[in-house]
Amino acid sequence: MRKRTLYSLLLMLALIVALIAAVWLRKHAPPEVARLLPESDAIVYLNLQPLRAATHFERTPVIRSPDYQHFVDATGIDPERDLDAAAFALHRMDDPAGPNGPVAYSEVFEGRFDGERLARYLSGMATSQEQYAGHTIYTIPIEGRRLRIAQLGYDTIAASNMPTTEQIHSMLDRYRASASPFAGSSLLAARYRDVPLLSSAWAIGHVGLPFSERGRITVFGLELPLPEDTTFVASLRVGLGALHLRIEQIAPSEADAARSTQALDALLRIFQVIQPKIEAQSEAPDAEALRQFAASIQIEQHKDRAVLTAILPTQLLKMMVTPESAILAAPSAAATPPTSATKR
Fold this sequence. Notes:
A twelve-stranded antiparallel β-sheet has the order 4-5-6-7-3-2-1-8-12-13-15-14, with helices on both faces. By secondary structure, it is of the alpha+beta class. The model is unreliable at 323-344 (pLDDT under 50). The chain contains eleven helices and 15 strands. The protein has helices at 2-28, 32-35, 48-55, 66-75, 79-82, 115-125, 166-176, 186-191, 254-280, 287-296, 314-321; strands at 42-47, 83-92, 103-111, 128-132, 135-142, 145-153, 156-160, 201-205, 212-213, 216-219, 222-227, 231-238, 243-250, 298-302, 305-311. A hairpin with a 2-residue loop joins β14 and β15 (305-311).
């Protein structure tokens, strides 16, 4: 009896340890939508549930284009309401002047939608279909590119506008192994540990690629003293009454980080000097929010990293996550020529 009791206790203890280990791994593992992404130069992730709670952007009236409204009516998907999480992989193109542009994207969306209605919509828009790993891949030509889309599960969609099928196939392959918390791209494995805990949105890798111009990063027409292939870890955390932004540039050495910190600090001082003049000439309702944001920016050096921190007003965040942004502007053309209307 004593042996049986001991064996039972040991078995129960082993099960408890295994359960705790599984919960810990799940808590510290990257989000599944990010783990499904293929190899890339950068990854951007958004958990829209806390951002929606902080900004209530889904309550903002949206002026939709006819094509966007057609997508919503045909699929029943309201991106502002139904999209819960999204992850984007950025792929640098070898020929920036080519038909595919400087950057291509692979995407995974998670939320609530009617799979049958979406499948009918995609089938009607697609010029071709492919069966792979038990899923249907729909191909839709858009502005010289081919957008490939597949429903992975009842709540997940994958898409890629890369020239080949390698990326969409990779996401379907990863979906079959997505139960593993260690799955994911090499970039995710190398940099996700640098993302602060409880971040509602984050980006890792060469996230300056979409803003690159002549080999430099340009934001709102302002050229930053950083090359386009600079590695960043950016994060946004929803705090008590505030949104905390943190952007780290990972430099090759401490000396490089010091130079970047000095250059960015000088650029920030110039911006703070000219900002009142810009505000005086602008009647934008977001001027006060921009002023608060600019006043909160701090730039410091932490060993081999130049670190920018700031408090992001909810008004500015609301602007970035409204459906007018590229993330949620899924349908951009009518049902007649096939378009990108497929994204959530």
